[in-house]
Amino acid sequence: MGAARGGCGWAVTALITWLATCVSLPVAASTFVLQDAVELAASSDVAVVGTVADVSAVPHRGGGVRTHVEIAVGVVLIGDPALRRIRLVERGGRVGEVEEKVFGAPDYRKGETVLVFAERGRGGVMRTVGMAIGKLGLV
Known about the structure:
The chain is α+β, with helices and mostly antiparallel strands.
């Protein structure tokens, strides 16, 4: 009966699907892989409890912004027991009028006490494991 009333909904759907396939644009996205504490620990080179000593955003040579986070270590849970400071570099941040927002990125605040699971990336640069999942603010 739909065809008798000029029902061409399938043709419209097919056209939209074809256009979406042919004219798709690249997009950026964040994906959380939920991990429990055991999985976070297994993925970490370092896990510490400490105080955020400094947070600063800088332009990244490859484009965008990176946020540098200095943590004064109080307790080492995983890693070198003599560790006193760690420096994390996270994607995103704001420098002047330039802002790069990375959804799911951890948010560090100076003076905050945190439990952080961190891993070494390229060149030995440390970053939070699992994005925001690897950073827990403590009270």
